[in-house]
Specification:
This protein is mainly α and 170 residues long. The chain is built from 5 helices and no strands.
Length: 170
């Protein structure tokens, strides 16, 4: 750990034996060894706390990533990025073949408590005609019937140039 060679350790032991003395040497060795054990325990405890903090930080990020993936709604995420103001969804939610005009209300009969004039009998309402749609797809429109082309009518009079031309050929 501190990279001491055996010769250095022997030198430190000899100096300690001379300085402390042979009588107090075992107590000094026990004290030094207990201090080294405490230092190692504190270093190991510090290392485990640091490792635990790293694991909690990493697992917290991983757990958050998994929860984000688990709770991801792909269709709403794509829709949010493609159509943020929902105009495309609103365009396709309407039926293009549905009439946009208001339907007329049927005429209601009015009853009067004391009629001053003879009562007017209303005719029954006519059956409602279906309103034309706002858009008709091109494939639903039948083709127009062919129109017969007649040859042009001959003129009412024959121009003099045509008469001269016929006479010159004959």
């Amino acid at each position: 750990m501190f990279d001491f060679a055996w010769s250095e350790i022997v030198l430190i032991g000899a100096v300690a034996l001379i300085a402390i003395g042979p009588k107090d040497m075992p107590a000094a060795i026990r004290t030094v060894s207990s201090m080294v054990k405490k230092a190692r325990r504190m270093a190991a405890e510090f290392q485990t706390h640091v490792d635990e903090m790293v694991r909690e930080a990493d697992l917290g990020d991983v757990k958050k990533a998994f929860n984000d993936i688990r709770n991801l709604d792909l269709s709403s995420a794509i829709e949010k990025h493609v159509d943020p103001d929902r105009t495309i969804r609103d365009t396709f939610s309407d039926n293009p073949l549905e009439s946009t005009y208001a339907t007329p209300r049927p005429v209601e009969e009015v009853t009067v408590a004391e009629p001053a004039v003879p009562p007017v009998i209303l005719s029954p309402p006519e059956p409602e005609k279906p309103l034309s749609p706002a858009f008709i797809p091109p494939g639903m429109v039948p083709p127009a019937p062919p129109v017969a082309v007649e040859p042009p009518e001959p003129p009412a009079f024959i121009p003099p140039e045509a008469v001269r031309l016929r006479q010159s050929r004959a």
